[in-house]
Design a protein that fits this description.
Strand content: 15-25%
Structural class: alpha/beta
Number of strands: 11
Distance between the termini: 47 Å
Order of helices and strands: EHEHEHHEHEEHEHEHEHHEEHHH
Largest sheet: 11 strands, mixed
Radius of gyration: 21 Å
Strand order of the largest sheet: 3-2-1-4-11-10-5-6-9-7-8
Oligomer: single chain
Shape: globular
Length: about 350
């Protein structure tokens, strides 16, 4: 990166904040030497942690606040009472133009509510969606929504498809992404009314991606499409199931290799391959989901991650900035929205 940019960080968000956050910032700084960080939180605690990272002296500015949003706090309460919280002040930095993006490992509902109220949505987008990358047999795919919208109508799902396709083009380099709707089966007659209507809208509209049709849960690992579209309820469950399955099989392998002397020897022989596989599916490598559709870049880190994972969430923010994803989305909405908007299709 040739130009310096600033990223706002909610230093008090996450299970192990601010320790994990400062560690993540230190790791990210090594990857991106020109990035400056605005850290919002308890200055005394943050400064004591920064003291052991000499390379952060000129890279970090700390803005003190003793308020933060807890993981249990309701979004409505956070909106009313958290105006001076580390999360809200970090979002304000993006709204005020001080920072290009905000990264937080805090309360997901509160972060979405605050960001939506403060930053607003892009023109043509009714609801923002949480989008993230998932590992597949073919590399990586985008999945959204991962939990922002439990109830979605057909138009929401079509907009998610447009947002996910823009992500796949700008970040993954897919020239014409394929988009699939997650359903209980691939047959045309299956699925809820909203999913059926969304499929009809996808097929009728002229959009800058290819609509594959319905996909199922096992298509996630296969990487059948570049973008998996789903409501937030199902998407969040799917994501947590994927993460839990990875941990389960990792533990199974660990127990198997410890079960006997011969198994321990086999592990020593296969350790390099095993470590390569483990690093490929490490959830920390995919940490950092983007709130797509907002008039500003907001990245949500997993609350239970470590410094390595948080650094990857920062990397996602840098990726979004350098690829100018919001500008790309707005361009596509302006080009295709007038003649191919979902509202036009519905009224036809």
């Amino acid at each position: 990166m040739s130009q310096r940019l600033t990223i706002a960080v909610d230093a008090m968000g996450g299970d192990s904040a601010p320790d994990m956050v400062v560690d993540g910032v230190a790791r990210a700084r090594m990857r991106f030497p020109t990035v400056h960080f605005l850290l919002f939180g308890d200055q005394t605690r943050i400064d004591s942690l920064l003291a052991s990272h000499n390379h952060l002296q000129d890279a970090v500015t700390v803005r003190h606040t003793d308020q933060f949003v807890s993981s249990e706090e309701k979004p409505s309460v956070a909106l009313r009472q958290g105006k001076q919280s580390s999360m809200q002040l970090a979002i304000n930095a993006v709204s005020d133009g001080e920072a290009k993006a905000v990264v937080s490992a805090g309360n997901t509902g509160a972060l979405m509510a605050m960001a939506k109220v403060t930053l607003k949505t892009l023109n043509g987008i009714d609801r923002p969606a949480i989008g993230g990358l998932i590992p597949t047999q073919l590399g990586e795919s985008v999945m959204l929504d991962l939990g922002a919208n439990v109830d979605c109508d057909a138009n929401n799902l079509v907009q998610f498809g447009m947002l996910g396709a823009a992500y796949a083009r700008t970040v993954l380099g897919r020239e014409r992404p394929t988009v699939g709707l997650i359903n209980v089966g691939q047959e045309e007659i299956k699925g809820s009314e909203n999913v059926q209507q969304a499929a009809a809208l996808f097929r009728a509209a002229t959009l800058p991606f290819d609509f594959y049709g319905f996909v199922e849960g096992d298509d996630l690992g296969a990487g059948t499409v570049d973008v998996f579209v789903v409501d937030g309820f199902t998407g969040n469950i799917s994501l947590k199931t994927l993460e839990g399955t990875v941990r389960l099989y990792t533990e199974y392998l660990r127990q198997t290799f410890k079960s006997s002397l011969l198994s321990r020897l086999a592990f020593l022989l296969a350790r390099r391959a095993f470590n390569k596989m483990r690093s490929r599916i490490d959830p920390r490598l995919y940490n950092g989901a983007t709130f797509l559709g907002l008039n500003g870049i907001v990245v949500k880190s997993h609350g239970g991650t470590d410094g390595f994972g948080f650094a990857n969430a920062i990397s996602v923010a840098v990726d979004m900035i350098t690829n100018e994803i919001n500008e790309f989305i707005m361009l596509e909405l302006s080009e295709f929205g007038k003649q191919n908007s979902t509202e036009a299709v519905v009224s036809a």
